[in-house]
Write a structure and sequence with these properties.
Length: 317
């Protein structure tokens, strides 16, 4: 959604106490939205991140994941603080090992759960960061991920964004990279991403904690495989995700990962998704062509919420 439209822009302005008319203009007529941004300097103040990791007998993988989170440059520089929550339902001592390796920087909850998304829901309920995400054991963040997310969210009316689709092998070598084009709300709500169109990669996705008001955490806790899709459709009720052409996080291929059960995953997606529209197939084919064939300029023209680095201006735009 571009500046000047309703939706996320008005939500951000409302959150800072700016009264607006239906078209987005301040009621006192003293400043445009762009001028208000310039006066405030930031759309959103990003001072704290929360990351949730659920583990079960994944000691070695969990250490690599935790290191990528705790080693964020934005945390080490003091730009932001971090709440890192680990929910350990296993018996191999993963939580104890993380405490030995990282001390009080990790908040470990060693307790049984009903599955991955029950543990994730527990963490999201108590998250206190301005920006929230979850990362499974074995997956990793790029060291500058938090800096990029904070830069974009502070400079633009964005409450939900995803980065490059990055696939790593088990040695954490990057083996595949793609910049997403866009994620249309209508096609996302009807469950087309991951089948007719590329997945929205969870490992690269971050959101403002204010979006938790849209989530039924009891329902999330009952998800077996498609809890990520449940979150995306909750957020998509408000706005489309923004895309930033940067490496934020990487999905690591593991033979035993839950994500390998594609058929069951999509059965769960279908149970959550809105009813299909007869024209969805045509829309999805056209969108797939755009993903594959549009130039960078064409992508940006059709998706103003696609941000890339402007070297001359030293900013994401």
């Amino acid at each position: 959604m571009a500046v000047g439209e309703s939706g996320s822009t008005l939500a951000v302005l409302g959150a800072v106490g700016v009264r607006t008319a239906n078209d987005g203009r301040p009621l006192d007529g003293t400043a445009s939205q762009g001028e208000l941004v310039a006066l405030r300097g930031k759309w959103m103040q990003v001072e704290r991140f929360t990351v949730v990791t659920a583990v079960k007998d994944a000691s070695a993988c969990a250490v690599e994941t935790a290191a990528s989170i705790l080693g964020q440059r934005a945390v080490r520089s003091g730009r932001v603080t971090l709440q890192y929550l680990v929910f350990d339902a296993g018996t191999d001592g993963t939580g104890a090992r993380l405490r030995r390796e990282f001390g009080d920087a990790v908040e470990v909850h060693a307790e049984p759960d009903r599955g991955l998304y029950d543990a994730i829901a527990k963490g999201l309920r108590v998250a206190d960061g301005d920006v929230v995400s979850y990362l499974n054991a074995g997956d990793v963040y790029h060291p500058s991920a938090f800096d990029v997310v904070a830069d974009v969210m502070e400079a633009h009316p964005v409450r939900w964004l995803t980065g490059m689709q990055v696939i790593c092998n088990r040695r954490l070598n990057v083996v595949e990279v793609e910049v997403p084009f866009r994620y249309r709300r209508d096609l996302l709500l009807r469950g087309h991403y991951g089948r007719r169109l590329p997945f929205l990669q969870q490992e690269s996705t971050f959101w403002a904690r204010s979006l938790h008001a849209l989530v039924d955490f009891e329902r999330l806790a009952k998800a077996r495989l498609a809890g990520d899709y449940y979150l995306w459709r909750c957020f998509a009720r408000e706005e489309e995700p923004a895309v930033v052409a940067a490496y934020l996080g990487g999905f690591t291929v593991h033979p035993q990962a839950l994500s390998t059960n594609q058929a069951e995953y999509f059965r769960e997606v279908d149970a959550l998704a809105d009813p299909a529209d007869p024209l969805d197939g045509l829309r999805a084919r056209l969108e797939r062509w755009r993903w594959r064939n549009l130039t960078e300029r064409g992508r940006k023209r059709l998706n103003p919420r696609l941000f890339s680095w402007d070297e001359q201006g030293a900013r994401w735009r």
